[in-house]
Amino acid sequence: MPNKLSSITKAEILEALDFIDHNGIPKDNEWNQYWIMYNRIPYPFKHSVHLASKFKIDFRSDHFYRTRISELGFNIQFKSEKGKDKAPKFWIGASYFGESPNHIPMLEDFIKNSYWATDHDFSSKTGKTIDKRLSQVSINDRIAIRFFSRKNSTIAIAALGTVKSIDEIHNGHLEVIWDYFPKLYNGPKPSGQGAGNWWNTFLEISRPEDIELIFDHEITNKRLSRLTWNLEHGYMSPSGRQGKSKDLKSHEGQFGYGHEEWLFDNAKLIDGYHYGFLEPVRKYQKFHTGKIYDVTFYTLDADSSIRYEVGEVYGLEVIDEQLADSIKQQYKTNGWLQEMEQQIIACGANDNGFSGFNGIDIFNVRYRPENLRINSPYKAIPKENAIYSAQRYTFIQDTSFSLNIEEEEEQFIFITPFPPSSNDGKDTNEDTGQPKRKKSFRKPKEVEIVYLHDAISIALTQKIRGIHQHQNVHPEHPAGYGQHRIDIVVNTNQGLVFYEIKTYPSILTAIREAFGQLMEYSYWSKHNRAVKIIIVTQIPITPKAKEYFNHLRDKFNLPLYYQSFDLSTGHLSEIT
DNA sequence: TTTCTCGATTTTGCCACGAT
DNA sequence: ATCGTGGCAAAATCGAGAAA
């Protein structure tokens, strides 16, 4: 009798996955144990197959059917509901039982009976380390079985799977659901610092590149990096000596500026990238070259010794010397290098030798400006945070340093000024009872990312024209008074919709800048009313901002909305 | 900034021996 | 003849902090 699913083709499954991409997963189908992995994105197995069959075939997701579908070329993985949100760990296990002379191959049994185990005596020396490692395994961790050749220093992965249960862990036994149709690595053994000892019976691997290689699983490589103090200029040009290290041995102390002070100067772009410099990268350039990081920046105000979280950037790439040199050459050609030199002089620092630096000492990283988020204002890091014990410019990986600063609960209560008599009649209500640090703190300087504004404007116009037809979408529409122009005006059945694009690196600044303009455009003249006013930025909405828009609409009946536009994918978010 | 030291991690050597 | 395999130990390497 033919398999119920034998009529389903690969193309139909792909179509179903595409449908899910656009329409999401219905609530009822979110509870799922088996997932089709496609382009590293998990799709619920049963729902996907159902869709592919146009709901014609009713079946229970069992081993037989999963095998059938996986044979079409789909990797299917198990993931339990338990501890679903926890980040998995990645383990490598041996394929044999027994000690040296008497090896018993176990792979077949492991696969057939859905487990991995070791027969080690946990009282022996190596047994104890294995026991210790096993105790750190949790449900949904991933595990691989390896063969190896010590002579050639190569490994071959024989199976990949997910830990389903750890109940028998004290017996050295893990219940594992092995992947269907896995991509199995076979090649040189990961080596070097952080690779772990692959000859061990059981080990955890943690380097992102290894996890990607073995498990085809992408890990965001998060780092913390300290920046020199540059509040006044918002890392768009050197800000002079105030708040900086006074240590004459450091570059900063010696010259009065650091090369990272142009890190957020997004007006200077080459092929969509901004090139900058990070001191912690310089120290281990060789190690970091070619890697990609999500970096959170913090800074230290040397005058108050308060540390602040400045912002973060996603997908920061560490470049090599060759590229750095060619970028320096381009900066020279564009006259930007000279501009930078003038900025050094303008802030009162010493520009001696600036033009003589190697490319790699001026540029060692690059990022796309749309991936930059700046806190406005910078978030003060509580004194208890471990970051206060980090003294140097290092690229911190340790999660114990995680900033994770809670959004400050805004509190506004009226503060009674001191009565005049208490202080010779002078008003001293500036720092009433508050810690001193607050008084000198101002918002960072931010500028709009001009290129991004233009690019979004063009792409968005095109996108909306696809929906509302060419003649109903007018970019750069005159506001009807003065020389002002509205970024995009759309003529819909319900009336006019105004779009204002803002590309500041912080969402709050973007909203603030757009708000006044939009109010003016729509209400300055009573005829020009828009039915909807939409602020568009490159930053996905935050819960706080969402609340703000709801509040504005509730309280004042303003038809004000927010959308974010992802330039790389051309995706426009829901209206919020 | 450079060099040194120390501890931790990783690699290699050696043993034994069955499988190829 | 050569290789895969795990334990154990020794050797090599690495990273971070201290000292120079």
In a few lines, what is going on in this structure?
By secondary structure, the protein is of the alpha+beta class. It has 14 helices and 25 strands.
Task: Describe, in plain words, how this protein is organized in 3D.
α13 (507-523) links the parallel β22 (495-501) and β23. The protein has four domains: 10-78, no CATH class; 90-215; 223-440, no CATH class; 450-572, Trna Endonuclease, Chain: A, domain 1, CATH 3.40.1350. The chain is built from 14 helices and 25 strands. Mean pLDDT is 80; it is low at 422-426 and 428-440. α1 (10-23) packs across α2. Strands 4, 7, 8, 9, 10, 11 and 12 form a seven-stranded mixed sheet that branches. Strands 13, 14, 15, 16, 17, 18 and 19 form a seven-stranded mixed sheet that branches. Strands 20-21-22-23-24-25 form a six-stranded mixed sheet, with helices on both faces. By secondary structure, the chain is an alpha+beta fold. It binds a DNA duplex (20 and 20 nucleotides) through residues 94-96, 98-103, 124-126, 147-153, 191-201, 249, 284, 394.
List key phrases describing it.
seven-stranded mixed sheet, 576 residues, alpha+beta, DNA-binding, 4 domains
Chart the SSEs and their pairings.
Blueprint: H1 10-23, E1 34-38, E2 41-44, H2 45-52, H3 63-70, E3 75-78, E4 90-93, E5 96-97, E6 104-105, H4 107-112, E7 115-117, H5 125-134, E8 142-149, E9 154-165, E10 173-178, E11 186-188, E12 202-205, H6 208-215, E13 222-227, H7 251-255, E14 274-276, H8 279-283, H9 285-288, E15 292-301, E16 306-318, H10 321-333, H11 336-346, E17 365-367, E18 372-380, E19 395-396, H12 450-468, E20 473-478, E21 485-492, E22 495-501, H13 507-523, E23 532-537, H14 543-556, E24 560-566, E25 571-572
Parallel strand pairs: 4-8, 13-15, 22-23, 23-24
Antiparallel strand pairs: 1-2, 1-3, 4-12, 5-6, 7-10, 8-9, 9-10, 9-11, 13-19, 14-17, 15-16, 16-17, 16-18, 20-21, 21-22, 24-25
Helix pairs in contact: 1-2
The chain binds a DNA duplex (20 and 20 nucleotides) through β8.
